[in-house]
Write a structure and sequence with these properties.
Blueprint lengths: L11 E2 L14 H11 L4 H4 L1 H11 L11 H21 L5 H4 L10 E5 L5 E3 L4 H10 L5 E7 L6 H4 L4
Parallel strand pairs: 1-4, 2-4
Antiparallel strand pairs: 2-3
Length: 162
């Protein structure tokens, strides 16, 4: 099961899976988001379009992030641009439930694990939204992923009704 797998949501573990730790700098989606929103490059210049098209080509279904064609990819990035603009205007990243009222527990949003001692660990799922929250330097809604047993006591502090 991959680190971004939502099947890990809410699973409590004693032995922390070391493959859950990953560098932000080597994550392609985070890298192209920063290049676009922070550094002002177009999605094309940032490598986002080529990345998505290469993922579509190697996908067994020919689909990645609900995209099949270049037009689908361009529309996806237009939607991300709208989320970025709305988030900048509001000063925070809207929850999935605010965007889609039937959404439950941030499904499709940022998936965060809680490691030993309670440190948050990005799962790799919800990359674009995570990049927006990081660039806005604001708290963000997240779906709970895998939780180390020592982190259970930290959960209440991380929860919020905002």
């Amino acid at each position: 099961m991959g680190t971004g797998s939502r099947q890990l949501s809410g699973r409590v573990v004693r032995d922390w899976p070391e493959d859950l730790l990953q560098s932000f700098d080597s994550h392609p989606k985070l890298t192209y988001c920063w290049a676009h929103w922070r550094d002002g490059k177009t999605w094309e210049e940032a490598g986002a379009i080529d990345f998505m098209m290469s993922r579509i080509r190697v996908s067994p279904t020919g689909v990645t992030d609900k995209c099949r064609t270049r037009e689908d990819v361009m529309q996806r990035f237009d939607t991300l641009e709208q989320i970025w603009n709305a988030s900048r205007q509001q000063g925070y990243l809207a929850s999935q439930a605010q965007l889609e009222p039937d959404n439950f527990r941030e499904v499709g949003g940022v998936l965060m694990h809680l490691g030993p001692g309670g440190e948050p660990v990005f799962s790799g799922a919800g990359c674009h939204r995570f990049a927006i929250a990081m660039l806005l330097d604001s708290p963000f809604p997240a779906q709970l992923g895998c939780v180390h047993i020592s982190a259970i006591q930290v959960l209440q502090r991380l929860r919020s009704n905002s």
